[in-house]
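Case study.
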Amino acid sequence: MIRVNRLKGKNVFLALFLTLIVVSSIWVSYSQATPRKKVLIGVLFDIGGRGDLSFNDMAWYGSQLAKEELEREGYEVKVKYYTPRSTAEYVPVLEQFASSGRYAVLVCVGFLWTDALKTVAKKYKEQKFGIIDAVVDLPNVLSVVYRENEGSAIVGAVAAAVSKTGKIGIVLGMEIPVLWKFEIGYGFGAKWMAKKLGKKVTVYYYYTGSFSDPARGREAASAMLAQGVDVIYAAAGATGLGVLDEVYNRAKSTGKRLFAIGVDADQDWIHPGYILTSMRKKVDLGVKLIILRAVKGPWKGGILSLGVKEGGVGMTTPKDLDIWLDFLRIAKGYGESKLKDIKAKVSVMFEKYVMPYMSLINELREGIINGTIKPPVPTSETIEKLRAEYMTPLGI
Amino acid sequence: MRLSQAIHKLRYLASLSRIAQSLLAIVMGFLAGGIMLWASGYNPLKSYEIMFIGDPESGVQGAFGGYLALSNTLREAAFLTLTGLAVAVSFLAGMFNIGVEGAMYIGAFAAFLVGYFISLPLNPFTNLFHVCLALLGSIVAGAFWSYIPAVMKVKRGAHEVVTTIMLNYVAILTTKMIVLRAFLPKTGIVPGGILTPPISLSARVAPIPLPSRAELTLGFPLAIVVTLITYFLLKATTLGYEIRAVGLNPRAAEYGGVNVGKALIYSMVLSGAISGIAGACDVLFVEYRFNSLFSPGYGFDGIAVALIGRLDPIGTALAALFIAAIHMGARSLQPALGMPKELAMAIEGLIIIFTALPEALNMLISKFKGVKVRK
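After joint prediction, the assembly is written out as follows.
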């Protein structure tokens, strides 16, 4: 009897032990085999799509950054892209994506999506959406907008500091309220720097009326240069490319010390050594934030305003060039030596002309971040007054 | 004697096998598209499956892969059926009318004017009345617009290809200018569009709800009705007979007592009226306003549609469904396969070209020979 009991006890012990092993091994294998959380993300580009080395490419880059970050945290991420062919496609395509119910978030890149998103987001209330550069006031939409006036103030300060003639300019696209932020911000920053340095700076502005006409940009830049302007900020989309070209050509042919300032993307590489800096608007950051908030939370619809403080806008330095050089390597097939040459030229220029004023520029930057310096946000009521204070119209 | 009998027999066979020819052309189109897909590193069968059925992974539906996709395909097919018919009735009379796009804009704008400036108390009767009135407005406006190049051709011999292409610019840009000057201040700034304010409630037709939140706009049933009317007009009336006779051989028709000028003008007026209806579909059934950029080129796609449909009303309607499905299906390729937009468009174009080729060649040959061989 005793023997039997003891044996039973042993058996119980053995059984317990075996159970423990089995359970733990199942638990271990289960925890290992737990499928990684799958996430599907949709990014809908602006017309034109990838390859613009600017807006859309930045949006793509942002989605890749978000993907990498999520994958490090154990998600399995797939990003699906769509480039529309015409505005007529906006609603049906967006609705297709939304109706599938599979996407963690759908990111609409560019303000052209505004109307389509309004229509579709109302119908698919359970779907999370994001939009860059526009506000769609619905609870399931996260709208990312940028405080371009802050970034423009910083490049305005750079322009005022570097200018020798005391005349700087800004060439703009269509006159819409968003563009006022570039204009007045630039003037504000320039006047701030002029006061610091104790010099007089005149800020000329000119609206070309177009975002896609480099020839008119060239004309406007030419007229400004004729006035004695030596630094021009091109805030006009593709029209601005004409400004960059004109400044470069004039500097080359006359040997004068002339500079341009780029916008949106880092355009410093376009004419290395002739573009002081670019007012970088980080579309990539906006896209990344929308995706991360939708997937990991905390998700809440509304407006997300990105300024200097959030790193959403700012001036570029040669350090920022690396991502763009990568793009150039992939998209344009630039060779290593050419890329190195670009980087060297930009660095030399930056060191020589911008670095001496870096502490003042940083002072402005800190001031904007902690709120002691506030570049004004123009509205239709205040624009005339602000213009009178900061700007000088250019007569062509 | 024997030879002529043989030719007769051959012609008979040719007419019998026109459906077979069309089907063969479609197969050729898919083969050509397939070769291009294969050469670009995509699996053709998988790609076609995605185009017509869908892709489970990305959740996008192909052209016939679900109610939502189907409703989109049918909406597009409605526009293409109408523009295809408009092209077909003018081509049948031998008029190379490229002006359907312009007449469509004029029709849409007329429908908008009737819908915007008249406002009726809302009940089913006034609703029906107002919509019919707006449709009538678009028919009259479109017909008038196409009457211009027809008269220029008949009275002065101005070639219709030149005049209709130029009138397209006039129509599209004039309506755009009017919207910019007169209506945009009331609409306010809408990103990416030059739009008028919405039309009155009594001029709108709500879509028919389908399962899974899809909606069928009224354009499709209307397009079917217009197809049947056109079929009847062409096959069972004197006018239709005269139009076809003039198209086959104007001199013979004239000899046979047909007033050629009148037949040409009528065919163009009919074409313009149908184009007008196509424009009205967007205003009254889809957008409820005039969008100065509403057409992605329906009027020009109509040419391919009419050719694939062999200028036959029923064939045109089927061809429109086919092209609409290709258009819609090609959209799914981007998200499903990561295919670039440009390649998807090229595949689409290739399929359409190959499918339209036989009738286009037929027309060209007959044009050069001076005598139509088409039945």
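Observations recorded in class. Residues 69-207+218-320 of chain B form one domain. The beta strands of chain B are 54-55, 60-61, 208-209, 215-216. We will return to this complex in the next lecture.
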